[in-house]
Sequence to fold (1058 residues):
Amino acid sequence: MRWDAWGDPELAAPLSEGTATLIRGMLGVSGEVTLPTIDPATVAVSPSRLSVDDLAGLRAIVGADWVSAADADRLVRAGGKSTPDLLRRRRAEQDAPDAVVVPGTDDEVAALLAWCGENRVAVVPFGGGTSVVGGVDPTAEQFRAAISVDLRRMDALIDLDEVSQIATLGAGVTGPEAERLLGDRGFSLGHFPQSFRYGSIGGFSVTRSSGQASAGYGRFDDMVQAITLVTPRGILRAGRSPKNAVGPDLRQLILGSEGAFGIVTSVSVRVHRVPAATEYEGWRFDTFAHAAAAFRAVAQEGVMPTVMRVSDEIETALNLARPTEIGESDDDLPDKQVPGGCLAITTFEGSPTAVAARAGVVREIFTAAGGQSLGDGPAKTWEHGRFSGPYLRDALLDIGVGCETLETVTTWAKLEEVKAAVTAALAEALPEPVVVMCHISHTYATGASLYFTVVYRQGDDPLAQWQAAKQRVTGAIAAAGASITHHHAVGRDHRPWLAAEIGDLGVEVLGAVKHALDPLGVCNPGKLV
Amino acid sequence: MRWDAWGDPELAAPLSEGTATLIRGMLGVSGEVTLPTIDPATVAVSPSRLSVDDLAGLRAIVGADWVSAADADRLVRAGGKSTPDLLRRRRAEQDAPDAVVVPGTDDEVAALLAWCGENRVAVVPFGGGTSVVGGVDPTAEQFRAAISVDLRRMDALIDLDEVSQIATLGAGVTGPEAERLLGDRGFSLGHFPQSFRYGSIGGFSVTRSSGQASAGYGRFDDMVQAITLVTPRGILRAGRSPKNAVGPDLRQLILGSEGAFGIVTSVSVRVHRVPAATEYEGWRFDTFAHAAAAFRAVAQEGVMPTVMRVSDEIETALNLARPTEIGESDDDLPDKQVPGGCLAITTFEGSPTAVAARAGVVREIFTAAGGQSLGDGPAKTWEHGRFSGPYLRDALLDIGVGCETLETVTTWAKLEEVKAAVTAALAEALPEPVVVMCHISHTYATGASLYFTVVYRQGDDPLAQWQAAKQRVTGAIAAAGASITHHHAVGRDHRPWLAAEIGDLGVEVLGAVKHALDPLGVCNPGKLV
Fold:
């Protein structure tokens, strides 16, 4: 992963001519590079505050090869991948963690936490580094330094129970690596968030990640059967059975804990056999409201596709189904088939009989709700490009165009109102014209997520500009009674609104749990609670 | 509800001649009444430890009509409905709460909790009184008295969002009342535990109840969208949206809290339209192992019936599908159709298309797994008698026959081993011959519940006899790595094994949450944590 942009440099593409022309025309920017990326060799990285003795202490725990205070190692763990993060990366001075430490076992993690408590050093767990809420910011807060604890050595498929279909994976296993390890045994996890290529099992857990196949395989928190959290007070293992009545569900206290209670080192997740059959079907709905009603009917009937998502009119028109090719002209492409309407995507995975049965039920409901089938083309096109979206943002930032995503979730009754409130808040906070695109990608019986992409002309201080807009839009979300995040988590950026969501008493409860597990407060300070 | 037996006296039936003959023959008991029930007028109820001033203080909070220290009122809240409870009810001396207080609002509940803290009085929330784990035992522990806080006035359908299909119900609404209130609007909750007729929404929440239609509508904890907990420290409201990433899920901390953190006063639950279509299908499998494999295949495919349960060979032979008619002879009845095998029941509810699609997938899987369809008869028979089981127990206790249920949940890989361990522990702990019946009634992709009914000859001290057996069997469950309870909760009876299940650190976390919300410890002391 690049230190200052999304993903793999090999996959980063310049803006296509069509996209560049469209964006220039819409937003009135010249296309000149106004905010260039910076050569990491020229960056002034904050000097490590750890002494030679400190580093020796850390090396005594994890081994000499697994501690680094080198600028290059620290720089790639300087933060996550939100637009503010990427804007900060284009500065000549960078804050970075004071060392990168890579433990290999639960015992080493426990020893690190003890060392950090004794030595007044904050611990910032690091998986894929894809946080977009400041969750891996190397903030020391009241401590004298902060180390990044990189979990990449915890990369094993520890156990696969093929009968129960439960896999135990190390926290550092990435999305593709999980699929490879399981695929060798004929299984799949089926968790495909936008961050799939870099995100880790531990990160998916502590942020309550939700993948593109959530309709079929559930959110990541639904998949978790058991989880191991190494805390300064010892190891907490939660989850003895699929579901039970042994008091509160402690798994659900560790899930979403964002490193604030300790470090997740392994997770047992439900897996499934690599599906025997897959069906794809794209649909056109006249309006987003029609599509939402159709999605609601499907979820309330309880017979779900594996993937079910729909873009609103604007996202459909701008063809975010092919995120690297906004504005490209090709009459065969899906946006040409849905003029003025909304493009929905469904896929179905499972046995041939089950796939046919589920697809039949969904087809009946969608047709009754006014949907028109577009065949399998749009869904296949979407699947092909589904992890490429974030690359586009880096190319836009170069030419002074801001691009960020944000998300929420609410009940069906409030969906349109929340969508309008977010759109209005962005339009008020950013210079005209603001392009706001939206899709539903996670559907429940009682409500759905709303995922927004906003594109706008950057001002003289792009960071302050976006922070003001984020402040406004998150306030609008909270005021509308929706959740401040559906799957991005709280981190540092959403923390000011935590009490609005869960109440002061809810914040106190989380504080009590943190105090019980991390009495000195060294675990990811400044995040979540 | 009777104070000393299950349910409605009108529905209690004496043992049929066939059942009585079978039981007498199997267990070698005479059929004479050896342990009679007792006339409540002759019972010595523990005197109330509350003063006139105390009662005046309570009346000032909830109103004069809603506080009682009368023996008759206290006696019906003396405990739950486990076999030990019913054995204790046959004694001449009874412990009872010191008063029964019936609040009508959240503010009254909050004021009661404050009063109890100031006056050193324990608070035992009371819903339907159907606990089988000592969850409503009126234990004062370190306090000078204990009051039963009966939630029956909180009996309203507070809100119904027909679009999002979310109903907000008062904690005191019972199962049948929820169905009536929702049914008037064309909706259903679909939560049908054995305790359905008496259990309350609050009780279902704090015990993580699971109903017979859990395959289709989920466990009660799956249904909960939002929940209000009144605590001594204030009101905690959790659940703004169906699912989100706003840190740990505080709903899942309140669910299963068994009154130890405060009192749940209202719950927002997912509901569904009264189904347009229902299909019933019974199945015969050669063995329990075959049936379990078939259930596993269905759950792992992810296309579920609404109800899916299977009795093992012994339960099938003794025809617990008709629990009031054990041993009755009728060639048309389902047990005659499955000699030597296992009877499974499925029902499907939903739209006609969805019902047909789901039933088709399940039929294909069951047939491939060796199942033989028995048509719709067995499932309809089961549905008719499904809430009558507990009545049988009271009639058996009269004649010196012990009858109790216990349950667990584990992964598919461990299911047979756990079933064998429980059966062996019961056989070792109780006098020969012990009749152990088992069924699966809650099925997950990764495992299933096991629900046991044990029938045995009682000894001279039936309470001590069962407690020793319970000790042994719960130890066996914990040692086998299964959960100590799937849906009965922890209460007082399972509390000694809590640390074996969640670890000492897990118990500490729950203690920290309790301390944050209930610093004086007045909330249901001695239960859960």
Q: What stands out?
A: Residues 162-273 of chain A form a domain with the Uridine Diphospho-n-acetylenolpyruvylglucosamine Reductase; domain 3 fold (CATH 3.30.465.10). Residues 498-517 of chain A form the longest helix (20 residues).
